[in-house]
Design brief:
Strand content: under 5%
Number of strands: 0
Number of helices: 5
Radius of gyration: 18 Å
Order of helices and strands: HHHHH
Shape: elongated
Length: 141
């Protein structure tokens, strides 16, 4: 089983950074949309936590697809990206919050699921144990 560990780490870090970029954009939109500080605070609390679930899932899918494209075992590579995203997220949450609220646990699990889905997409498109760039001999068989 050949995994592209370097691509997996890069994809996981990029997915986590992208999740925080989406989170900041949502919070800035809330500040511009609601000029009332109490409404902005409610919006930021509710959507700030739920944005991590959805954006983490979607960005893990994209990262896992990119990492799995260079790997011989696409599904395993996607799972590695999902687990790395979840580990980075859990580490960041543990440093920031200390406790682990259930909504943040859902965000962490969504990253694992996103990595699995991304790896599965590549596996279904390409088939088992075939590299993305097939040689001429592979094309003849």
């Amino acid at each position: 089983m050949k995994l592209s560990l370097g691509r997996s780490v890069i994809a996981a870090v990029a997915a986590e950074l992208g999740t925080y970029v989406v989170w900041v954009v949502v919070l800035l939109a809330a500040g511009l949309l609601f000029m009332n500080p109490s409404r902005t605070q409610w919006f930021a609390y509710f959507f700030g936590q739920s944005v991590g679930i959805f954006s983490g899932f979607v960005l893990s899918i994209f990262g896992a697809r990119w990492a799995a494209a260079a790997s011989r075992d696409a599904f395993a590579s996607g799972m590695v990206v999902g687990v790395l995203c979840a580990a980075f997220n859990a580490l960041i949450v543990a440093v920031q919050v200390g406790a682990f609220p259930p909504i943040l646990l859902a965000g962490t699990l969504s990253r694992v699921l996103g990595g699995a889905v991304g790896g599965w997409f590549v596996y279904r498109r390409r088939g088992p144990n075939k590299p993305m760039h097939a040689t001429c001999e592979d094309a003849r068989t």
